Amino acid sequence: MVYTAALLFGNPGLLDLSEEESVLEMIGKYFLQLTSPGRGTNSARRGSVESCDERDNSPVAQMDAGVEQEQRVLQQAVTRHIELCLTEAKASTLLCQVLLLPHHMTARVGQDVVRSSADEPCGLRGASIKVYVEGKEGLKPVGSFSIDPSVTPTFELSVILRADESYGWPALKHIFESDKVLKLRPEYRLVKRKLYSSASPVIHDFY
């Protein structure tokens, strides 16, 4: 033990009792510093782990995750409603048998509808949503819906989709053409109008 201590402190010689006590005292202080809870390195490492755990399990992080999940659910609901409106309007209003949509278009519209409703008192649940298709003959209403019918609407949101003119607009010729195809363009417009308010409508164009 004495020899090991001597090697530790750079002294290969033999030690008498007084030197041994001095070395033991120094060794004790050395290991006390290494194992002390107040040592900076250990404290910093322990603190970083605690911060990580707190960040992962904090109420704020859980609340943010809950909000994101709710927004995804609302977006999916809007997407389904828009697709249902278009499906039901194919024969009656759009006068076509095949309706072609750009890839992920209704999902993008649903996302923008949710974002446009974020600053409203009741959010999307306070929206009265109307869907239109714009073609050569002007706007054609294809349906309307509310996410939560139990909530009195505080604003109206019009979704205006645009027909691709290169495919033509099915008018009187649909009587003679049973395979009429209508294609929608990627761009669309959202018009937000507050109910019970004299504020001017807000128009957003998306491309």
Structure commentary:
This protein is α/β, with parallel strands linked by helices and 207 residues long. It is 43% helix and 23% strand. It contains 5 helices and 6 strands. Strands 1, 2, 3, 4, 5 and 6 form a 6-stranded mixed β-sheet that branches. Helix 4 packs across helix 5. The N terminus is likely disordered.
Q: Biggest sheet: strands, sense, closure?
A: 6 strands, mixed
Tertiary shape: globular
Rg calc: 35 Å
What is the helical fraction, as a range of percent? 40-55%
**Number of β-strand runs:** 6
Tell me the strand percentage band: 15-25%
* CA-CA gap between termini: 80 Å
The number of helical elements comes to 5
SSE pattern, N- to C-terminal: HHHHEHEEEEE
Averaged pLDDT, please? Answer: 77
Low-confidence stretches: 1-21, 39-53
Q: What structural class do the secondary elements suggest?
A: alpha/beta
Summarize, please.
The chain has 207 residues and is of the alpha/beta class.
Q: Any key phrases for this structure?
A:
207 residues; alpha/beta; six-stranded mixed beta sheet; 23% strand
List the helices and strands and how they pair.
Blueprint lengths: L1 H7 L8 H19 L4 H18 L1 H34 L5 E3 L4 H12 L10 E9 L2 E8 L9 E9 L17 E14 L7 E5 L1
Helix pairs in contact: 4-5
